[in-house]
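<instruction>
Derive structure tokens from the sequence
<data>
Labelled lines for chain and fold:
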Amino acid sequence: MSREEQVSRKDSEQLADEELIVNLVGGDKYALDELMRRYRRKALSFAYRYLNDYDDAEDAAQDSFVKVYYFASRFDNRTSFSSWYYTILINCCRDKLRQKKRFGLFSKRYEQTIMNSPQNGPDNSIDERTRLLPNALARLSAGKREILALRLSQQLSYEEISKTLGISVGTVMSRLFRAKKELEKILKDMGAID
């Protein structure tokens, strides 16, 4: 790596996300690398919680970065990069779900996992809850999984979720409340909580 490339890469590490996207449009080859470095882990975590399948989560995360590259010029600098990016990522996750349904690959593995699970004693109750949580999340509608993942997994504020989903803060709060209540009911039905 040449000295010039090292300086450019180091400069990219110091820039805000919004500056990186502007640099990406201008042809900075390290801008996308830096954005991927910053968001890859969060993207995989979010996509896995949304899709409940690691391979699909990797595909959706990768697709989202490809779209960032191709559509960087459409970024509106009046919004935050993270809101814009999560909108892209959510759409990639939705596309992946549609694709699975279209080709008949949407499995019933969540129900099979629950039916085949051994009875656990009290010592294993936390492990059991942790194991059942993805299954419980899978039973929620895509919209409820989405809003829970944005708030709990990605720790976005109500305002950030509002911008990402294009809904009011009040709607975010009510949807989160309903999603948490439904998740709690599912976990109770599964015997994961009392």
About this structure: The chain has two domains: 1-106, 107-194. The chain has ten helices and no strands.
